[in-house]
Amino acid sequence: MDNLLQYLINLSIFIPIIIIMIVVSIKVSRANLENLSIYKYTKVIDRTSLNKDTNVFVLKIGDEGCVIVSSSSSIEKIKDLSSEEVKVIEERNNRKNLKVNNFKLNKIKLKKSNVKGENNGDTK
């Protein structure tokens, strides 16, 4: 009986400690992985799907870049890009992302104003 009681006490003490250690280690490793991705030498600037199995990638490798076609059976390098061409593509993507984000924000604002308008109309 003493052994069982001692076992249960040890179990109730050490299991929460182990769970806390697992959670902390996951949070620390996730933060480290995010920091590592900031300093990558290669970066996928753009990806376009041509069909189910074929994709076109624009990669930035250092200052220069390249265009790659990837299918389920092969990968081929189509073109090398200069640093100026890579900058132009990155700027175009940044502008496109800004437009999409602004559109989403405007859509959210419209929904909120519609909800407020409906609430004001219901209080008659």
Automatic annotation (TrEMBL):
Keywords: Cell projection, Cilium, Flagellum, Membrane, Transmembrane, Transmembrane helix. The chain crosses the membrane at residues 6-26. This is Flagellar biosynthesis protein FliZ. It comes from Romboutsia maritimum. The lineage of its organism: Bacteria, Bacillati, Bacillota, Clostridia, Peptostreptococcales.
